[in-house]
Each structure stands twice: as C-alpha cells, then as structure tokens.
C-alpha cells in the first residue's frame, strides 16, 4: 500500500534530478531568459493545477485568475507586515476558504452553467475588490515593494511545481484519484458505487485553487504595481485552459506539453503584435480545439504502437461498438 | 414465510410537476426473495428503483432497509447501506478497463478494497461473470451483453444485501437471454435478494418468487407470477378492457 515501491520510486527520483538541475538555471542564463522561465514555471503550475480538477471531472473552470489574483492581493496587503513565508501561508488560507465557498455553492451546477458561473465569479471578485479600493482605501492601485529577486521567484515557483507534481503523482495512485476518474466517466455510477461525489469534487477544487493562489502570491513581487484590472485579468484563465487543452489535461505531465510551446508563442505574439494579441489568441484556441481535441498527449497515444494488452479478441471490432 | 423483511416500502409518493409518477406504493421484500416489478411503459417502475436507490428522493413515504430508515439518504449512503443497482440504459465506465470497472465497486463500499487486494478480488469477480479474458479491455469496447455482465459485476462488487436490476435482460438475443437468466439464477441460489424490473415474461416466470404489478404509479397486483399474470386488472392494464 505504501507509495514508495519500486515502480513509484523511479519516476520520483527522475523528477527530483530534473528539478535539481533546473534549480541551477539562474547561473546559466541572463535576465531575459529568467523572465521567460518564470512565465513558463507559473503557467506550468496553473495549468497543471487546473487539470488536476478539470481533467478528470471535465468541469471547465474559468476561475483560475480569481485565485491567482487573490494570492497576489494578499501579498499586496500583507507583504510588508510579516515575513514572506507567513504571507504565503495567509494567501493559502484565504484561497482555501474562498475555494470552499465557491465549491459548496457551484459544484452542484453542471456543464455550461459551471463555466458561466466561474467566469462571472472573476468579474464579481474584481468588482468587489475595486469597490473596496475606491470606497475604503481610496487608492485604486497598490505597490508591492519586497526584497525578493527574480531568482527567488523562480526557485519558489520551481518548488511549488515540484510539490504539485508530487501531489498529482500520489493522487493518481490513490483511491481519491480513482474516484475522480470514475466521476469523470459517469457521475451517476460514481454515486451508486458509494462515492461521495460532492465532497470529492470540492476537495479537488480546493486543492487546485490552493496551488493557483500560491502562484499568484509568489508572482506578486514581480509586478511591483497591481490593481484589480491587472490582478484579475480574465485572459489568464483562458490562457491556462488553452495550454492545458493543448497538452492534454488528463495526464499529469500533459499540461506541461502545452505550457512550453504556448508560453513561447504568447511571448512572440505580445512582442510583435501587441495590438492583435486577443485575436491571435482566439485563433490559437480554435485551431487547438479543431485539430487536437485530445491534446498533444492524445495525439501521441493515437499514433504510438498499440500496447500488448489491447490485443484481445475484442479489440478488432472496437470501432463498431457504441461508446 | 417466516424469513425477515429486508426492504419495506410504504406510502411512497413521487410527483414530477403535475405528473404523479409513483402513487402510494407499498410492498415488502423478504431476505432471499426475487420479486419482479412489472407494469406497462410509464407506470413508474424505474422511478421506484430510483427512489429506493437514492437517485431521486420521494415527496412522501418511507423506505426501510433491514430496520434502518434510508428515505432521503443520498445515493452513496444508500449504496453503503447495502443496495446496489444496474441501469435501464446500461452504464459502464467506457474508458476504464474491465478490472477497473469492477474495482470502482470495490474501492468505496463499506469494507473497501484497494491496491493488490482489489485487483485480485476484481479478477475473481470477472471470472464469476465470465469476463476474465476481457480483464484489460476498455469497457466501451465490449459487446452489449458483456457490458451488461460488467455492470452486474460492478453491482455485485459492492456486496449488496439487495440488488436492483432495471431491465437487465432487455435487448438481449434469445441465447444471450438464456445466459442472463442462468446468471441471475446463480445469484438467487447464492441467497441474494433481488428486485427486477422486467418485461421478459420467460425470465419472470422462471426467476421470480413474487411479482408486484404497477399501473399509472400505483400497485395493482401483488402475488405469485402465475396469479398476477392472470389477474383481470393486470391484463386490462397491459391489453385494454376488451381482453380482461
């Protein structure tokens, strides 16, 4: 039953070596590439965390930026009052509480209603924060001056991503992870198998939101100035969805395969076509949905040689039977 | 019969808007009994199954399993209480293989199995329902009868006290039907209590100890299969006045 068996130790060890090597990146490349690496790392955490909940359950959440923004704002408010580690803990707590509230109130919604709700939630939170800033603090923006370097941000994101992957790896081999897959296949069956569907969905939603909040908190010092429009920009939620879908949200490392090419592409687009960014983003989205409905991972699984186990007598007529 | 009552339904009522789907239903089922729940299309049989299994909650009435009131409990708690079901339109987990489909039934029951134990138990169950050679086939690739077997296997994995079969034998060809009947009969010999919604009369006559017949949401007959199938009101419900 232990997680530390021969076939789990190997991937964990390989992962540890890769992350240890990545930690030396700042001494190898200049500032421009570090800033690119930070973008990749932050999107990697966001897209993987998004997929952790949305991959198996197939609930498309556009609330990524809600939690990201909440993390960033927590740092803006508390950053100068306490040590940064403590600020991160606070951000995690705030994100967890809000995710619980959202989870309890929305996860009974299905399909498109959930999508719309999460999109609306972004607007709601942004407006509430704006209202508070205008009427209570009477300052629309906030400055984040913390003694945190670009390299610190990179290392923190790298550590967060490592923890996230380890969590996902353990989850994928746990009863909880299996329950999620069953829920994704058929929620009704899951209920009648004795799975408390609502509780499990909320647990995963909160876990995923926690990582998003921490990403926002870690990224906040990079901006120095934030206001509600920057922190709660819905574009981020869409970018995360596109990246996860391009990579393949149903595998742990799938989203990463979408994050790397798209972060680079977005970088090129913002640098060269700043005024047409949204249009081009929309086009990218459509191309991905049309050409790669199962992501890069799906493409790979389609064209690799079939595994031995599928050579059962039945597989010959698999195309004819209804799914 | 002196054996004790496993499930007792009383005054069960369910309306969807103005449509009364189930109206003051009541019946008991004793341990080890197989009862057939019959009635014309739209008479409320599946709704009764949904009310017992917790997929729907009743507007009124009581469902008592083994002395415990399970009315209004959510489906997963009813499953823990000891009721498993299959669905009118077969529901398997298409992208998971057969072993995993059975493990879905093993991993979240009251005495859960996980890991190696679950794998062994799932394989044994597949052997019992005759699907062991498909252990690693995705369930979506199975033929219809095999999907039905698998769905039954998943229900059995829950080790239920009471099994609800919602037209489990429907849509099978004659030889598959014989296989299906044999499988249910085996379960009966193992002492499982079963409620089956069914239209296949051969199956009802050969398997059921008792039949409950519904029409327009209410119970119109309750007795041995031969007695209810010759009952005037039952014939009228199915075939109209001229045949009664």
Main attributes of the structure:
heterodimer, A: 323 residues, two-stranded antiparallel ribbon, 14 helices, 2 strands, 73% helix, globular, B: 244 residues, alpha/beta, 6-stranded mixed β-sheet, 4-stranded antiparallel β-sheet, 9 helices, 10 strands
Please give a quick description of this structure.
The complex is a heterodimer of chains A (323) and B (244). By secondary structure, chain A is mostly helical.
Describe this structure in words.
The complex is a heterodimer of chains A (323) and B (244). Chain A has 323 residues and is an all-alpha fold. Chain A has a domain at 7-231. Chain A has helices at 6-22, 31-57, 64-78, 84-106, 111-137, 150-172, 175-185, 187-192, 197-223, 228-231, 235-247, 254-272, 277-291, 295-303; strands spanning 142-143, 225-226. A two-stranded antiparallel ribbon of chain A has the order 1-2. Chain B has 244 residues and is an alpha/beta fold. Chain B has a single domain, classed as P-loop containing nucleotide triphosphate hydrolases (Rossmann fold), CATH 3.40.50.300. Chain B is built from nine helices and ten strands. Chain B has helices at 45-53, 75-81, 98-106, 116-128, 144-157, 174-189, 201-207, 225-229, 232-239, and strands at 5-16, 19-30, 34-38, 60-65, 68-69, 83-85, 162-166, 193-197, 210-215, 218-223. Chain B has a six-stranded mixed beta sheet with strand order 6-7-8-3-9-10, sandwiched between helices. A four-stranded antiparallel beta sheet of chain B has the order 2-1-4-5, with helices on one face. The mean pLDDT of chain B is 91. The chains are: A mainly alpha (323), B alpha/beta (244). The interface between A and B is medium-sized, with 29 and 40 residues.
């Amino acid at each position: 039953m232990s997680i530390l068996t021969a076939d789990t130790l190997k991937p964990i060890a390989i992962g540890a070596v890769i992350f240890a090597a990545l930690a030396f990146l700042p001494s190898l490349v200049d500032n421009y590439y570090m800033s690119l690496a930070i973008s990749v790392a932050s999107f990697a955490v966001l897209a993987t965390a998004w997929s952790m909940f949305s991959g198996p359950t197939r609930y498309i959440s556009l609330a990524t930026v809600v939690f990201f923004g909440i993390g960033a704002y927590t740092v803006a408010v508390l950053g100068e009052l306490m040590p940064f580690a403590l600020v991160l803990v606070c951000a995690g707590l705030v994100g967890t509480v809000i995710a619980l509230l959202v989870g309890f109130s929305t996860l009974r919604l299905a399909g498109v209603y959930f999508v719309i709700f999460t999109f609306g939630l972004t607007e709601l939170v942004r407006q509430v924060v704006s209202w508070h800033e205008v009427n209570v603090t009477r300052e629309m923006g906030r400055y984040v001056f913390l003694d945190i370097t670009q390299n610190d941000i990179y290392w923190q994101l790298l550590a967060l991503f490592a923890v996230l992957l380890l969590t996902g790896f353990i989850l994928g081999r746990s009863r909880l992870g299996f329950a999620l897959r069953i829920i994704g296949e058929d929620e009704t069956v899951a209920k009648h198998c004795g799975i408390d569907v609502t509780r499990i969905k909320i647990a995963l939603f909160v876990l995923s939101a926690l990582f998003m909040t921490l990403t926002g908190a870690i990224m906040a010092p990079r901006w120095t100035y934030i206001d509600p429009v920057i922190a709660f920009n819905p574009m981020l939620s869409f970018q995360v969805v596109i990246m996860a879908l391009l990579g393949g949200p149903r595998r742990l490392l799938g989203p990463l395969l979408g994050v790397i090419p798209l972060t680079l592409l977005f970088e090129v687009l913002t640098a060269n076509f700043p005024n047409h960014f949204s249009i081009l983003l929309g086009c990218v989205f459509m191309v991905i949905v049309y050409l790669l409905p199962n992501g890069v991972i799906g493409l790979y699984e389609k064209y690799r040689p079939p595994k031995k186990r599928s050579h059962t007598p039945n597989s010959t007529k698999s195309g004819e039977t209804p799914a | 019969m002196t054996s004790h009552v496993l499930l007792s339904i009383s005054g069960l009522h369910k309306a969807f808007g103005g449509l009364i789907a189930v109206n003051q239903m009541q019946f008991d089922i004793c341990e080890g009994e197989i009862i057939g729940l019959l009635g014309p299309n739209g008479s409320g049989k599946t709704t009764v199954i949904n009310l017992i299994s917790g997929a729907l909650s009743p507007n009124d009435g009581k469902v008592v399993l083994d002395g415990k009131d399970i009315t209004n409990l959510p489906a997963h708690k009813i499953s823990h209480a000891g009721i498993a079901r299959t669905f009118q339109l077969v529901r398997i987990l298409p992208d998971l293989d057969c072993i995993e489909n059975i493990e879905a039934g093993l991993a979240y029951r009251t005495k859960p199995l996980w890991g190696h134990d679950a794998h062994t138990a799932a394989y044994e169950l597949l052997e019992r329902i005759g699907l062991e050679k498909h252990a690693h086939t995705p369930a979506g690739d199975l033929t219809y009868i095999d999907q039905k077997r698998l769905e039954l296997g998943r229900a059995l994995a829950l080790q239920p006290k009471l099994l609800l079969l919602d037209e489990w034998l429907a849509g099978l060809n004659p030889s598959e039907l014989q296989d299906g009947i044999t499988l249910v009969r085996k379960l009966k010999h193992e002492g499982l209590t079963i409620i089956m919604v069914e239209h296949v009369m051969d199956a009802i006559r050969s398997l059921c100890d008792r039949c409950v017949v519904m029409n327009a949401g209410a119970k119109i007959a309750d007795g041995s299969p031969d007695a209810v199938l010759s009952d005037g009101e039952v014939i009228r419900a199915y075939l109209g006045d001229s045949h009664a």
